[in-house]
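[step 3/7] inverse_fold.run input=structure_tokens len=555
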């Protein structure tokens, strides 16, 4: 079968068809096209200028000339702008960016009001228009130019219509502001409630004994009672060691604590950073529960020749209710209710219901001259500190007849006397300056000779007895300390005692220069809630290679 020939049915091109026309037709068409171009150019040159003055524009309109597209758009918006009460600046072609920003800010307020009124559809429309305006501004900023009229004018017009609708829906600015104020107040109340919860749970976490510390205490107690060799190290001490406990030419430190690991860090860091560790004597006092494990730990470990004495507070039989006002007050039903009640709106704040305020270990600092009657100068250390420098220079500081050397904490107003004491009470108001500078316990140089001469313990007893109803101050050992040592404190260089590592941010340069770092606050370094960025200073003095530490902390 033969294939049929292919027929080209394609339409001839314009060039081919043009060439097929007679020459006179092509000439006529060319002349007509040229005449049309001339007429179009004449019309364009005779049209009015959009930037011309109003009189010129009026005259042009009277002659029947066609107005520009921009003028047509402005006349289209005339009916809306009167109702919107929009300013001339917002409609000015020279400030599109500012118009868009102003509309965005206003629209965001109306979005919040629309959501509050449950008008979610209108809120969505406003949000979409906000995103559109933001996109225009972002595009202009990215290309380093200004917002062009062509892209901004429609966005401004559309947003104006929505803002006008928002006014018609009675989303008045004053009402909106009042609603927002109510929301802010509600959020502040919620924030306050959450802060109180955080304080409560933080206090609970700070009071709980970590599993590792409990394990360490149990294992050390077992080691103490099954290993007579450890017991002999304390019972059969040489006369030289016994004499060190009373030798005033040595450097005497005292720590009162029931935390074995924390005390070991204090002793270890002091010994490692000391130029003469063999001249250091640590006087430790703990309670009955931790007495055996504390002795076991220090019998098992040597700290570069440091002498360690360990006593228990229960052996100080003279510390009884007839002599110590705090113990006497604890026998009172009203005081017990104040310490332990936590129910109701008038319950004692949780931060004051800390067991440390009831522990005699916390109040032993006011009886140091009686605990160590043969000593003349000691340095008192809290158990939540780390020593970074040699502390022997503290024993050569001239206290100028004062009883205590301490670092003042009045760089901020909340560390002055009025923060800790009730200055509305006439007894406090008559004897103490509310703006007097406070100071910190934790690293204190004590001249025990001046202490005895000025009867500081008696002054402490006087103020504790006056505070039986808790109207002078609430709880704690610092407020009575401020009263007992009032006028008897020599200010030390702040580098000796850097505070705040247990509750706030401390400047790194200050930490580096500090001799003693104090983890005052709830976030102790041995707790999980401790501040991670400061734990390293404390961890570096814990011997994690010790078998008992590995058994209790590394599992």
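[step 3/7] decode complete -> sequence:
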């Amino acid at each position: 079968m033969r294939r049929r020939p292919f027929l080209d049915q394609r339409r001839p091109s314009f060039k081919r068809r043009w060439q097929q026309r007679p020459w006179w037709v092509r000439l006529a068409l060319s002349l007509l096209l040229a005449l049309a171009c001339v007429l179009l150019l004449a019309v364009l040159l005779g049209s009015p200028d959009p930037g011309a003055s109003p009189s010129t524009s009026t005259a042009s309109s009277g002659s029947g000339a066609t107005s520009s597209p921009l003028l047509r758009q402005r006349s289209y918006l005339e009916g809306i702008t009167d109702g919107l009460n929009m300013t001339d600046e917002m409609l000015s072609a020279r400030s599109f960016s500012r118009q868009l920003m102003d509309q965005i800010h206003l629209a965001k307020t109306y979005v919040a009001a629309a959501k509050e009124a449950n008008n979610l559809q209108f809120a969505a429309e406003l949000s979409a228009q906000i995103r559109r305006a933001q996109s225009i501004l972002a595009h202009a900023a990215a290309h380093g130019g200004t917002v062009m009229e062509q892209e901004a004018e429609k966005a401004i017009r559309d947003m104006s219509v929505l803002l006008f609708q928002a006014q018609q829906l009675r989303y008045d600015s004053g009402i909106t502001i009042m609603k927002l104020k109510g929301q802010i107040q509600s959020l502040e109340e919620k924030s306050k409630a959450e802060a109180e919860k955080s304080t409560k749970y933080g206090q609970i976490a700070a009071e709980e004994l970590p599993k590792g510390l409990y394990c360490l205490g149990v294992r050390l107690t077992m080691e103490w009672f099954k290993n007579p060799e450890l017991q002999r190290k304390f019972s059969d001490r040489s006369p030289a060691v016994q004499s060190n406990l009373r030798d005033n030419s040595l450097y005497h430190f005292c720590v009162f604590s029931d935390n074995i690991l924390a005390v070991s860090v204090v002793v270890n860091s002091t010994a490692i950073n000391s130029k003469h560790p063999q001249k250091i004597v640590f006087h430790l006092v703990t309670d009955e529960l931790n007495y055996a494990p504390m002795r076991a730990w220090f019998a098992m470990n040597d700290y570069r020749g440091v002498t360690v004495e360990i006593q228990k507070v229960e052996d100080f039989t003279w510390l009884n209710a007839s002599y110590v006002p705090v113990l006497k007050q604890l026998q009172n039903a009203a005081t017990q209710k104040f310490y332990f009640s936590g129910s109701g709106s008038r319950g004692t704040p949780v931060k004051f219901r800390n067991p440390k305020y009831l522990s005699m270990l916390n109040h032993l600092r006011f009886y140091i001259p009686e605990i160590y009657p043969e000593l003349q100068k000691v340095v008192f250390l809290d158990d939540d500190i780390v020593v970074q420098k040699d502390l022997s220079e503290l024993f050569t500081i001239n206290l100028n007849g004062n009883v205590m050397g301490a670092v003042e904490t009045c760089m901020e107003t909340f560390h002055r006397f009025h923060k800790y004491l009730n200055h509305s009470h006439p007894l406090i108001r008559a004897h103490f300056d509310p703006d007097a500078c406070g100071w910190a316990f934790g690293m204190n140089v004590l001249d025990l000779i001046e202490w005895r001469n000025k009867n500081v313990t008696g002054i402490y007893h006087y103020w504790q007895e006056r505070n039986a109803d808790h109207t002078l101050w609430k709880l704690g050992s610092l407020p009575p300390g401020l009263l007992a040592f009032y006028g008897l404190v020599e200010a030390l260089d702040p580098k000796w005692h850097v505070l705040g590592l247990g509750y706030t941010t401390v400047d790194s340069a200050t930490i580096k220069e500090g001799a003693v770092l104090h983890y005052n606050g709830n976030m102790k370094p041995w707790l999980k809630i401790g501040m991670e960025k400061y734990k390293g200073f404390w961890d570096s003095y814990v011997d994690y290679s010790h078998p008992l530490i590995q058994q209790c902390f590394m599992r």
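[step 4/7] annotate
Confidence is low (pLDDT under 50) at residues 1-11, 47-91.
Residues 173-207 form the longest helix (35 residues).
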